[in-house]
Design goal:
- By secondary structure, the chain is α+β, with helices and mostly antiparallel strands.
- The chain has 3 domains: about 5-95, Double Stranded RNA Binding Domain, CATH 3.30.160; about 100-190, Tyrosine recombinase, N-terminal domain (DNA polymerase, domain 1, Orthogonal Bundle), CATH 1.10.150; about 205-335, hpI Integrase, Chain A (Orthogonal Bundle), CATH 1.10.443.
- It is about 50% helix and about 10% strand.
- The protein has 16 helices and 6 strands.
- A 4-stranded antiparallel sheet has the order 1-2-3-4.
- Strand 1 (about 20-25) and strand 2 form a beta hairpin.
- Helix 8 (about 205-220) crosses helix 12.
- The radius of gyration is 34 Å and the shape is elongated.
Length: about 400
C-alpha cells in the first residue's frame, strides 16, 4: 500500500538498474516520485482527463521541489483537472505557440499590404533590423515588460531615441494584433516610458528658398525638381505628389482632387491650385506630349516611373539639392511646413491652412500657431509708431 512521501523517504528510494520507476504517494492520488537509473528524482502527477485520456505531468525535480510543496502543487493540478482542465495539453500548446518571428510574418503578410509603400518599407526594416533579431525566437505569449524595455533602452543607447520610440510603437501595434488573434491577452508595451521628443519646427527661410530655387533650375533631373516644386507650391505630402494622376486635376489645373487612396486620412481632399502651380503642371504636361520624358511608360501619372508605375522617391535628389543650396537639417516634409509658415505669416487663419493641407484635426494645424507672432509683431510695431508719432504732434 502506498505510503505518504516525505523528503527523507524520497531520498532513500531505491535506484533502478535501468530505466525509471514511479513510487506513488498515499495521500494525493496519482502523485508520485519518478526515480531514474541516473539517480535523478522528479515529482509527477498521473491523471485522466474528462475524455478518459491518461496523462502524466512532470511537476519538478527533487530537491528543488520539496516533497510537501510538490504534493500541494499536485493537489492544485488535480482540482484543475476536475474542472475540465488538462495541464499537459496546456504545456504542449504553449510549446507549440507562435513565436515573435511568426507574428512578424503574419503582420507583414496581412497588415502591411493595407499601408502605404513608404510605411511598409519603414516597418519591414524595423522588423528586420530591430525586432526579429532580438525577440524573434521567443513565444508571443511569453514576451514581458523587461524584454520590451530592454529593446527600447538598447536602441536608445545607440543615440537614436526617436527611432527607439518608433520601434516601440510598431511592436505595440503588432502585439495589439496578437491579442485580436488570441495569441496573448495583454500588451506589455503600454507600460514602457517613451523617450522625450521635441516636435520639429523646420521651415525654409527666404534666403534658403532663393538658393533652393536656383538649385532646382540647375538640377540635371528635372522630374525630381518638378516634384520638389509642386510639393513647395501646394504643401502636399510627398506620397500625394508622387502618386498624382492627370485625371486628378480638372481642366486648366484649377483644382486638384486627391483620391482617398493617396491621402494620410484615407479621405478625398480637394484644393485649389495657384497660378505658379498651374503653370508648372502645364509645363510638365507639355513636356510629356513632346516626348521629352525618357521614363514614360504611359500618360496616367504626372510623374511616371519605371514599369508603368509612378515615381517612388526623391530622397537622393533632395539630398543633392540641399548640398548645392547649402540647406542644413531639412527633410522633404519640411517643404509642407514651409508652405504652412508662409500662409501663417500672411495672416491666414489656422482653419484655412488646415483645409489646404488636408489636416482633419485642429491640433495638427495648431503647431503653426506660433508663426503668427511675426505678423502680429509687425502690426503692433506699426500701431505703436502711428500712435507715437501722433502723440508727438501734441
Amino acid at each position: 500500500m502506498p505510503t505518504k512521501l516525505t523528503d527523507r523517504l524520497v531520498k532513500g528510494l531505491p535506484t533502478p538498474v535501468t530505466g525509471k520507476r514511479i513510487h506513488y504517494d498515499g495521500v494525493v492520488k496519482g502523485f508520485g516520485c519518478r526515480v531514474y537509473a541516473s539517480g535523478v528524482r522528479t515529482f509527477i502527477l498521473r491523471y485522466r482527463t474528462r475524455t478518459r485520456l491518461e496523462r502524466l505531468f512532470t511537476i519538478g525535480s527533487f530537491p528543488d521541489w520539496p516533497t510537501e510543496m510538490a504534493r500541494r502543487e499536485a493537489a492544485e493540478l488535480k482540482r484543475t483537472v476536475d474542472r475540465g482542465g488538462d495541464p499537459v495539453a496546456d504545456v504542449q500548446a504553449a510549446r507549440a505557440g507562435p513565436t515573435v518571428s511568426d507574428l512578424c510574418d503574419r503582420f507583414i503578410r496581412e497588415y502591411l499590404p493595407r499601408r502605404r509603400p513608404t510605411t511598409r518599407r519603414t516597418y519591414e526594416l524595423q522588423i528586420q533590423n530591430e525586432i526579429r533579431p532580438v525577440l524573434g525566437r521567443y513565444k508571443v505569449a511569453d514576451i514581458n515588460f523587461a524584454q520590451v524595455d530592454a529593446l527600447h533602452r538598447k536602441i536608445t543607447a545607440r543615440g537614436v531615441p526617436y527611432k527607439a520610440n518608433r520601434v516601440l510603437a510598431l511592436l505595440s501595434r503588432m502585439l495589439n494584433l496578437s491579442i485580436r488573434w488570441q495569441w496573448r491577452s495583454d500588451n506589455p508595451c503600454r507600460s514602457i516610458e517613451k523617450n522625450q521628443e521635441q516636435k520639429r519646427r523646420r521651415y525654409l527661410s527666404p534666403d534658403e528658398l532663393a538658393r533652393l530655387g536656383a538649385a532646382l533650375d540647375a538640377h540635371p533631373d528635372q522630374q525630381s525638381a518638378d516634384i520638389i516644386r509642386l510639393l513647395l507650391l501646394t504643401g502636399a505630402r510627398r506620397g500625394e505628389v508622387l502618386a498624382a494622376r492627370w485625371a486628378d486635376f480638372d481642366d486648366g489645373f484649377r483644382s486638384w482632387h486627391k483620391p482617398a487612396s493617396t491621402t494620410k486620412q484615407k479621405l478625398e481632399h480637394s484644393i485649389p491650385l495657384s497660378e505658379p502651380a498651374r503653370a508648372l503642371l502645364t509645363k510638365i504636361r507639355g513636356a510629356l506630349h513632346a516626348g521629352q520624358e525618357p521614363l514614360i511608360a504611359n500618360e496616367e501619372w504626372v510623374f511616371p516611373g519605371l514599369a508603368g508605375s509612378h515615381r517612388r522617391a526623391v530622397r537622393r535628389a533632395w539630398m543633392s539639392l540641399c548640398r548645392v543650396a547649402e540647406i542644413d537639417a531639412a527633410r522633404v516634409h519640411d517643404l509642407r511646413h514651409t508652405y504652412a509658415s508662409v500662409l501663417v505669416s500672411r495672416g491666414f487663419s489656422l482653419p484655412v491652412i488646415g483645409a489646404l493641407l488636408g489636416n482633419t484635426l485642429p491640433s495638427t494645424t495648431a503647431r503653426y500657431a506660433h508663426l503668427a507672432d511675426d505678423p502680429l509683431r509687425l502690426a503692433t510695431e506699426q500701431a505703436g509708431e502711428i500712435i507715437s508719432n501722433g502723440s508727438r504732434r501734441h
